[in-house]
Design goal:
This protein has 134 residues and is an alpha+beta fold. It has one domain: Trna Endonuclease, Chain: A, domain 1. The chain is built from 3 helices and 7 strands. The strands form 2 sheets. The chain has a 5-stranded mixed beta sheet with strand order 1-2-3-5-6. It has a two-stranded antiparallel ribbon with strand order 4-7. Strand 5 (86-91) and strand 6 (96-100) form a beta hairpin. The longest helix is centred in the N-terminal third of the chain and has 18 residues, at 3-20. It is globular and about 45 Å long.
Length: 134
């Protein structure tokens, strides 16, 4: 799949998961910094959706998520908590959608997610997919 197809697939996986959870998903009619509006139990959240499928080089069980905006109308290089409430990431290797809260994405250009713990035993600063599944 090319980049656009991966993005569309991530959108579909997110929408399917939202329906499974009983949420309502709306799409803005104009270009915005977020992809969807999620209504869960009457609470509205601005959602940006990303695809994570490429493993990080030199690291088994990890994938890098590009958190930079791909929009042509924006000059902002990354997302902030003032623009987006959550970033949802479809992790292809685990076939799950994970939820990144603002403290994990605010002002960052990328984040590394782990589908399995590192072999060196590192525990600090890890973002395990299993702990972020939505």
């Amino acid at each position: 799949m090319n980049r656009q197809q991966k993005a569309e697939y991530a959108h579909l996986r997110f929408q399917a998961r939202a329906v499974e959870r009983g949420a309502i998903v709306s799409k803005p009619l104009v270009e915005t910094r977020y992809d969807f509006i999620l209504d869960e139990d009457g609470v509205m959240k601005r959602i940006q959706v990303k695809y994570c499928g490429v493993k990080s080089s030199g690291s088994n069980g990890a994938c890098q998520v590009n958190l930079r905006s791909q929009g042509h109308t924006s000059r902002k290089p990354h997302y902030t908590k003032d623009e987006v409430d959550f970033i949802m990431v479809y992790v292809a290797s685990a076939d799950v959608v994970v939820c990144l809260p603002p403290e994990l994405f605010d002002g960052k250009s990328s984040i590394q997610l782990r589908t399995e713990p590192p072999k060196n035993g590192q525990a600090k600063g890890l973002h395990l997919v299993s702990e972020l599944v939505w």
